[in-house]
């Protein structure tokens, strides 16, 4: 075979047969799909090492308390225990954090939320580790609670982080406010004076959990060089490493992370959970240490969606033109900052929705409190705002006597519109068209539970298999909503991703190896990477290298950014490899065909070099010979800039995505039970790299939005800030019986600034699904419903006689 790959001219010229299968634009199967559906896929909780120990974390039973003493003697005396560590045993750094390093690895003198880690144990069996942790004696003295804006900003409020030195501290009005972002544009008082209709209302969004099915887990293995290898389910390998190295007292190159199988994330794996604890115990004992949270621990081991209180005022002219929006958004960030500053920026900049409004006055803040820490979750600040501004759009339309869809379309932004931040939307923004499409879809049939001549199908009724109703007092409602979400990291963050591509001949065929640090958390990025490599390099065989920190950062799998950013990096690296292939081909075979002199007219297809006329002038195997091409490249999107701290003006976001929903519900108005019959969506995706995966992302985001609308909430006790429902028995998520039909209309209007014209997909459907479902319930019941999730008690007459706000 080697003789066939020497530098000789091709022996024949033929016509190219076409592109390999599974290229950009096709619904290529997932490389991990079969393993996952057959139960053979290895998740991080499946990790195993011959001589490993098991780690366990002791957590605080109080939300705010001083630690007076910790006695570990009884735990250490238990046979099988190899180590017990508290704050005093930490070897180097004591705090970590994504932006503000305010979170203790282990609490020292006080705890700030229910479930905060206080001590860690390593033992030879997981049950031994749990029993040892139960033997640790901690003396607490409970302290006054900070549980909302009133208690957080009171003159005598306990300061949760006294002596703050972070870069937000100087511009917030109180130390218990993490970050504040105003948006000011136009003249709101003058617009208010001109308004024919003014609607002002308060809204509330509960604390939602990401509810991924694979709990936090990982395996830390001490290395011979004094470092540590961590096999972990995470969203951002390099930022994990950068937070871990100072805590472990090691240089970054001695903290090596490899991605293990991830059972969902949705933002909750962006912060550290058990990573530092496993590594500390491994280095302390000299043995591999595995930590796997159970479901109860998982609810305390990661951040959640910020609960929010929102006040909105909209003013409109009689002809249906929006004149101004004024709003205030208060997000409860919990005990530590996590990504609250960025969530505030999103909530503020996206607060009025995908509408053209000349006059805007917005304030968004995030609080420190003794509630559980909150941070990234799918939608990232835009979800809370969308629920409120879409409820307002319905309310204003009703006051004006206009159809709610027509009212939205009349005020919808389009390409060239100006955001309240002053940024011009310079790519397609088909908001009115998305609304038109969902409204034009055929309606699902009425009374679907009735079968011809047969028994009632209770699965189609509110209450389902609980068999609570057979159709009595069931009323249908229809609701609409549309939302706007940014794509990628914003506000001046240096957002980049890295890819390494190796092209070589194996078994006589050209094979591409794709190596990135992208965290595959279920979104299908690994599928996209193989599609891009096949498209750009014209090869059938593409192999994926495990994601790890031995290649440059891919950034976080969040902000709907990975197809744009790491997909862009893979494309960029493949283009560099292709250029090198053509250089080598020209060097070897340039005299054999004039086409080699015009590389811009050549492409790679079916393992060949092909002219733009389809003529084959070279063979990849022959060009490569025994010499591989191995290149690494970085990809960056256009630079953004921070929002002005006084006016909120600035080019803050690189791209926007839009999704509209129509929800059809049936409500048993006597029992307060809701059945979502259909949740239709229309979304512009720019370019569907993998159409089936795109629809799957829209379905998944819509389902999480449905969950927030009618069932999902972490309940925190008012008197003690303790989590009351840390289990899937009491924290409810939609099952297949709750998930309705979801017709999807996909638009592909290219964004010229993005690779292939694509647009981030995963988050936008999470925004508009919630307000669409709640709007449909309002239509069925007539109740105002200004809080989510909507519970059965919010939908009965008795509740509304005693609580006119209706929840």
TrEMBL record:
SUPFAM superfamilies: CO dehydrogenase molybdoprotein N-domain-like, Molybdenum cofactor-binding domain. Signal peptide: none annotated. It comes from the Bacteria. Residues 38-144 form the Aldehyde oxidase/xanthine dehydrogenase a/b hammerhead domain. Residues 8-17 have a biased composition (Polar residues). InterPro entries: Ald_Oxase/Xan_DH_a/b (IPR000674), Ald_Oxase/Xan_DH_a/b_sf (IPR036856), Ald_Oxase/xanthine_DH-like (IPR016208), AldOxase/xan_DH_MoCoBD1 (IPR008274), AldOxase/xan_DH_MoCoBD2 (IPR046867), AldOxase/xan_DH_Mopterin-bd_sf (IPR037165), Xanthine_dehydrogenase_dsu (IPR017609). Residues 1-33 are annotated as: Disordered. GO terms for molecular function: iron ion binding; oxidoreductase activity. NCBIfam families: pucD. This is Xanthine dehydrogenase subunit D.
């Amino acid at each position: 075979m080697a003789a066939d790959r020497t530098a000789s001219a091709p022996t024949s010229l033929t016509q190219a047969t076409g592109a390999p299968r599974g290229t950009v634009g096709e619904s290529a199967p997932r490389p991990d799909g079969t393993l996952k559906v057959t139960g053979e896929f290895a998740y991080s909780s499946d990790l195993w090492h011959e001589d490993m120990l098991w780690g366990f974390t002791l957590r605080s039973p109080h939300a705010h308390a001083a630690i007076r003493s910790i006695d570990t003697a009884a735990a250490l005396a238990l046979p099988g225990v190899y180590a017990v560590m508290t704050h005093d045993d930490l070897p180097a750094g004591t705090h970590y954090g994504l932006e503000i390093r305010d979170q203790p690895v282990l609490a020292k003198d006080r705890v700030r939320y229910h479930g905060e880690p206080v001590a860690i144990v390593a033992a030879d069996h997981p049950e031994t580790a749990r029993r040892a942790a139960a033997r640790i004696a901690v003396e607490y003295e409970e302290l006054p609670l900070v549980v909302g804006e009133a208690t957080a900003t009171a003159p005598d409020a306990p300061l949760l982080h006294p002596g703050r030195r972070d870069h937000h501290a100087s511009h917030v009005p109180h130390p218990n406010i993490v970050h504040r972002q105003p948006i000011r544009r136009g003249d709101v008082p003058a617009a208010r004076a001109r308004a024919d209709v003014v609607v002002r209302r308060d809204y509330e969004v509960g604390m939602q959990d990401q509810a991924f099915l694979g709990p936090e887990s990982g395996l830390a293995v001490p290395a011979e060089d004094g470092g540590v290898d961590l096999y972990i389910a995470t969203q951002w390998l390099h930022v994990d490493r950068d937070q871990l190295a100072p805590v472990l007292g090691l240089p970054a190159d001695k903290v090596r992370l490899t991605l293990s199988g991830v059972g969902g994330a949705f933002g909750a794996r962006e912060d550290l959970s058990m990573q530092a604890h496993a590594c500390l115990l491994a280095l302390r004992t000299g043995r591999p240490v595995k930590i796997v949270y159970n479901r109860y621990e998982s609810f305390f081991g990661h951040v959640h969606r910020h609960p929010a209180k929102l006040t909105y005022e909209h003013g409109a002219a009689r002809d249906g033109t929006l004149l101004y929006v004024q709003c205030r958004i208060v997000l409860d960030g919990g005990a530590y900052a996590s990504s609250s500053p960025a969530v505030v920026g999103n909530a503020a900049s996206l607060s009025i929705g995908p509408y053209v409004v000349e006059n805007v006055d917005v304030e968004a803040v995030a609080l420190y409190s003794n509630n559980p820490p909150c941070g990234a979750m799918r939608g990232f600040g835009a979800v809370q705002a969308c629920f409120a501004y879409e409820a307002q759009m319905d309310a204003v339309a009703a006051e004006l006597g206009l159809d709610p869809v027509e009212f939205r379309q009349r005020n919808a932004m389009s390409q060239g519109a100006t955001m309240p931040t002053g940024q011009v939307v310079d790519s397609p923004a088909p908001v009115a068209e998305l609304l038109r499409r969902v409204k034009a879809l055929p309606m699902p049939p009425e009374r679907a539970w009735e079968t011809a001549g047969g028994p009632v199908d209770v699965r189609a009724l509110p209450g389902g298999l609980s068999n609570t109703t057979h159709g009595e007092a069931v009323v249908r409602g229809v609701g609409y909503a549309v939302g706007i979400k940014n794509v990628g990291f914003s506000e001046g963050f240096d957002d980049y991703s890295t890819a390494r591509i190796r092209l070589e001949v194996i078994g006589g065929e050209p094979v591409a190896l794709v190596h990135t640090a992208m965290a595959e958390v279920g979104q299908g990025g690994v599928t996209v990477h193989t599609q891009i490599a096949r498209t750009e390099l014209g090869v059938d065989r593409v192999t994926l290298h495990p994601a790890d920190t031995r290649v440059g950062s891919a950034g976080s799998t969040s902000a709907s950014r990975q197809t744009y950013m790491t997909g862009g990096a893979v494309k960029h690296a493949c283009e560099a490899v292709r250029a090198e292939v053509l250089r080598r081909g020209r060097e070897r075979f340039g005299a054999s065909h004039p086409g080699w002199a015009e590389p811009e007219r050549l492409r790679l297809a079916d393992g060949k070099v092909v002219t733009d006329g389809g003529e084959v002038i070279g063979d990849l195997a022959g060009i490569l010979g025994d010499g591989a091409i191995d290149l690494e490249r970085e990809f960056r999107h256009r630079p953004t800039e921070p929002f002005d701290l006084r006016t909120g003006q600035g080019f803050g976001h690189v791209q926007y995505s839009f999704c509209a929903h129509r929800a059809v519900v049936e409500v048993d108005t006597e029992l307060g039970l809701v059945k979502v019959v259909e949740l239709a969506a229309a979304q512009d995706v720019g370019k569907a790299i993998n159409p089936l995966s795109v629809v799957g992302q829209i379905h998944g985001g819509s389902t999480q939005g449905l969950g927030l609308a009618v069932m999902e909430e972490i309940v925190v006790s008012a008197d003690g800030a303790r989590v009351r429902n840390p289990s899937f028995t009491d924290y409810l998520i939609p099952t297949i019986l709750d998930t309705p039909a979801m017709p999807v209309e996909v638009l592909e209007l290219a964004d010229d600034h993005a690779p292939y014209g694509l647009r981030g997909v995963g988050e936008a459907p999470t925004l508009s699904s919630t307000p669409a479902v709640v709007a449909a319930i309002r239509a069925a019941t007539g109740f105002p419903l200004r809080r989510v999730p909507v519970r059965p008690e919010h939908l009965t007459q008795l509740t509304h006689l005693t609580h006119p706000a209706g929840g």
